[in-house]
Amino acid sequence: MKKPSLLIYIHGFNSSPLSHKAQVMVQYCAEYRPDIKVIVPKLPSYPQAAADYLVELIEEYRKDYEIGLVGSSLGGYLSTWLNAKYAFNAVLVNPAIKPYELLADYLGTQVNPYTQEEYFLEEKHMVELLALQVNEIVLPNCLWLLQQEGDEVLDYRQAVAKYINCKQTVEKEGDHSFVNFERYPQQIIQFLNL
Known about the structure:
The chain is of the alpha/beta class. The protein is built from 7 helices and 8 strands, in the order βαβαβαβαββαβαβα.
């Protein structure tokens, strides 16, 4: 008998479960696929703590559920790491490729615009991010890159190159939020095989 399905949506840096794309997935499943359990964890602000939290969550559910991942930005980076660890299918939306370089410009006090949580980003957190780097994609068939070239935060070419052997949908223009994400929930669910 097929296990019940669980979709875990992994939000990005300074985001939250209230992010637009997370809510699109939650609402789509509630309306069209109520059989899918959707979890959008509020991730700790620090990389290793976030990774540990996700592993704990997955260990709690993986015996009883088929798990699929959707990760946006830094969540895409973490989803790639989880794919390498567990072989789950994952959809990566404008994923961060080298967040330890990008976020080096953000060291110091940060305030999450969704939660108003204040925290302090240090060099050691960049080291934690680097430790989660997946150098080689071993399961390209399990990953789908959803990328918009107009991403103003990340260089889309890095993602296109990293996920070269994976399924890719690369759209002209758009931005880091992934404009009109509402077009994709059904295809995402199909790809995740949930």
